[in-house]
């Protein structure tokens, strides 16, 4: 009952808080009694919008608040309030409240902000760590309903976004419990669990290491092959976040046949386009990491002709985002020492793909709303083309040199 009341109070507080934040003018109060810093640059649409499935793995909820905005006995900042609760509020109510607040004068708005701060302090709201512990306890409770588990994971998804909170998750026993949820019979629970793990370890070597040591990578790679597309997408997101710039994680990824999993996705034209995007993005990231660690032996996977062709074929997609990611991957692959230019030329038909893509982009430039993006993509295409021809030229020069040497040797032999 206490938790229900707590969540109700938080939801009520956030409607008042968020409505003020999205109302328009942001005020920074520097007096000793206030020290309240309001977000800059967040639009109403940023706060009210819901993330589209597959569009992005970043749940943008809440306003940016400076770290020094401490609230005694509660959240470290209003950011903590917004991050936890904005996703649990009714967008229609937020919009209505925001419209009411917009009618306030600057002095009335300042007064409202101070009232909100005092209200939050009086509520003695729990810290992020306490909220995470509540969610972890719900997951660890075998009698928790499916709805309670979903809500707990959704709360963790928001709470683990700050680096400090992500680092605290394992200390609270949360990582092991979330990893256990990867085996839950409900696909949505598995999806949310993978999403939480990916969010917690993204750009965080400490949490990456913890999750790898708990053995989650093997399970996540298997989940990428799930018949549930949403589960597969979030599992691949988690895999990518887990091994990004992590050499030991990448070695385990290859040992678990992660490269085969990527090739299966890329070579399957019927795969969901979101899987294609994430897979080719991961390829580009893996190759970039290889380029930054030249002393490390290159994976044979990178010079597999069927794999290379599957990446080049993605440039024929009508999805510009996928085309861009494919070009970045090709650009990186061309810079590897072990990839062969002639395979790109003869087997993958990279030159033909680049020419066809150029024509497609020229057609798009006629559209005013897509012209800028098409221009950026054309610049990237030209860069790839230049690197390709340079790599190909070196091979052709070597071939010409060898042919010339052979001719001279044959000529001298005949004369003697």
Automatic annotation (TrEMBL):
Transmembrane helix is among the record's keywords: no
Sequence ranges assigned to domain Nucleotide exchange factor Fes1 in this UniProt record: 78-169
Keywords, ordered alphabetically: Signal
Pfam family, one: Fes1
A GO term from the CC aspect: endoplasmic reticulum
Signal peptide: 1-24
Keyword Signal found: yes
GO MF: adenyl-nucleotide exchange factor activity
PANTHER family, alphabetized: ARM REPEAT SUPERFAMILY PROTEIN (PTHR19316:SF32), PROTEIN FOLDING REGULATOR (PTHR19316)
Name the UniProt record assigns to this protein: Nucleotide exchange factor Fes1 domain-containing protein
């Amino acid at each position: 009952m206490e938790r229900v009341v707590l969540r109700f109070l938080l939801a009520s507080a956030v409607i008042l808080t968020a409505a003020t934040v999205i109302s328009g003018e942001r005020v920074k109060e520097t007096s000793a009694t206030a020290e309240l810093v309001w977000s800059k640059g967040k639009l109403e649409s940023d706060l009210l919008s819901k993330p589209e499935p597959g569009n992005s793995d970043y749940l943008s909820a809440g306003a940016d608040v400076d770290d020094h905005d401490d609230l005694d006995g509660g959240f470290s900042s209003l950011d903590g309030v917004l991050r936890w609760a904005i996703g649990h509020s009714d967008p229609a109510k937020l919009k209505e409240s925001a419209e009411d607040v917009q009618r306030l004068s600057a002095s009335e708005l300042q007064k409202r902000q101070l009232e909100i701060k005092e209200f939050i302090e009086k509520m003695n709201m729990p810290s992020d760590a306490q909220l995470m512990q509540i969610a972890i306890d719900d997951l660890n409770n075998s009698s928790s309903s499916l709805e309670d588990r979903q809500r707990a994971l959704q709360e963790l998804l928001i709470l683990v976004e700050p680096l400090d909170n992500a680092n605290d998750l394992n200390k609270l026993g949360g990582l092991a419990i979330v990893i256990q949820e990867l085996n839950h019979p409900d696909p949505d629970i598995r999806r949310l669990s993978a999403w939480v793990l990916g969010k917690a370890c993204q750009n965080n070597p400490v949490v990456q290491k913890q999750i790898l040591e708990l053995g989650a990578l093997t399970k996540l790679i298997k989940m990428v092959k799930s018949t549930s597309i949403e589960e597969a997408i979030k599992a691949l997101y988690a895999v990518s976040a887990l091994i990004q710039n992590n050499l030991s994680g990448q070695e385990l990824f290859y040992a678990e046949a992660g490269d085969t999993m990527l090739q299966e996705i890329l070579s399957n034209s019927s795969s969901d386009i979101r899987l294609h995007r994430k897979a080719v993005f991961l390829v580009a990231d893996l190759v970039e990491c290889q380029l930054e660690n030249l002393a490390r032996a290159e994976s044979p996977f990178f010079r597999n002709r069927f794999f290379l062709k599957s990446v080049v074929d993605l440039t024929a997609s009508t999805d510009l985002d996928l085309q861009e990611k494919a070009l970045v991957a090709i650009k990186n692959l061309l810079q590897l020492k072990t990839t062969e230019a002639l395979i790109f030329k003869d087997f993958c038909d990279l030159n033909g793909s680049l020419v066809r893509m150029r024509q497609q982009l020229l057609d798009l430039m006629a559209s005013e709303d897509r012209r800028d993006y098409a221009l950026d993509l054309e610049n990237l295409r030209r860069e790839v083309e230049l690197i390709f021809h340079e790599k190909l030229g070196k091979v052709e020069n070597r071939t010409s040199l060898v042919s010339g040497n052979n001719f001279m040797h044959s000529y001298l032999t005949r004369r003697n």
